[in-house]
Amino acid sequence: MLEPFFLRALAAGIGVAVMAGPLGCFIVWRRMAYFGDTMAHSALLGIAFAFLFEIEPMLGVFAVAALVALALLLLQRRPTLSTDALLGILAHATLALGLVMVAAMPWVRIDLTALLFGDILAVSHADILAVYLGGAAVLAGLAWLWRPLLAATVNPELAAAEGLRPERSRALFMLLMAGVIALAMKLVGVLLITALLIIPAATARRFAPTPEAMAGLAAVFGALSVALGLFGSLEADTPSGPSIVVAATAIFLTSLAIPRGRAETGR
């Protein structure tokens, strides 16, 4: 008989995986893995601002991640530095500033281990509700953006010529990413959410004949990773968040030995 806390963790983790999988496909197609890391690193700064202004941490993380995404869009318009250099600057600057702010508030006690690696076994019914309502909003937004965002991923110039406004689609996609980071932070931690975005999508890419199929398979592989990771953590008494990522990695490595589908979805 499984304990209620384990069932809550399973429900919340699957909700995050289903939300992250389709978004992760665009991260893989657009080669934006480091962007996910940058957004995750900014979460600590969001937590610091949340304590400073006494607001909900999830709102603080979302606000800072959204500002980082918009700052990247503005900086990319200046051809002085490459995108990876800009991402490196933003990632380390926000992380360092967050640490400095936390150190400057001695009345604040933050469990950095839980923040970095999550505490999925401690989720409440309210957390599950937030994940599923927020996840539904994120997936609805992605469905609305799907056609212009996919067109901009394949050929930005053609998408612009067709009036699909690729820059707007990219900005809105980054805001969706900020929402996912904020929702998933408490569950798997800021350093591991990027793995849940990328690894299931990379696994699905080997078998999916279409972009839509890849999005569905990424959600399935993500949910399977959560289930295997949590049950493995229960049996081996290992940390839950890292165990989920280990399970996702094991699924990916196993997929390399399986003949892929008709065509690998390449973007």
TrEMBL record:
UniProt GO BP: response to zinc ion; transmembrane transport; zinc ion transport
CDD domains cross-referenced by the UniProt entry: TM_ABC_iron-siderophores_like
InterPro entries in alphabetical order: ABC_BtuC-like, ABC_TroCD
Membrane-topology annotation of the record: Multi-pass membrane protein
Entry-linked Gene3D superfamilies: ABC transporter involved in vitamin B12 uptake, BtuC
Domain of life of the organism encoding this protein: Bacteria
Keyword Repressor belongs to the record: no
Parts of the chain that traverse the membrane: 6-29, 41-74, 86-108, 120-146, 172-201, 213-234, 240-258
Main subcellular location: membrane
Record localization: Cell membrane
Keywords recorded for this protein, A-Z: Cell membrane, Ion transport, Membrane, Transmembrane, Transmembrane helix, Transport, Zinc, Zinc transport
SUPFAM superfamilies linked to this entry: ABC transporter involved in vitamin B12 uptake, BtuC
Cellular compartments per GO CC: ATP-binding cassette (ABC) transporter complex
Family under the similarity heading: Belongs to the ABC-3 integral membrane protein family.
PANTHER family assigned to the protein according to its UniProt record, in alphabetical order: ABC-TRANSPORTER METAL-BINDING PROTEIN, HIGH-AFFINITY ZINC UPTAKE SYSTEM MEMBRANE PROTEIN ZNUB
Function comment: Involved in the high-affinity zinc uptake transport system.
Name this protein carries in UniProt: High-affinity zinc uptake system membrane protein ZnuB
Organism of this sequence: Marivibrio halodurans
High-level lineage: Bacteria, Pseudomonadati, Pseudomonadota, Alphaproteobacteria, Rhodospirillales
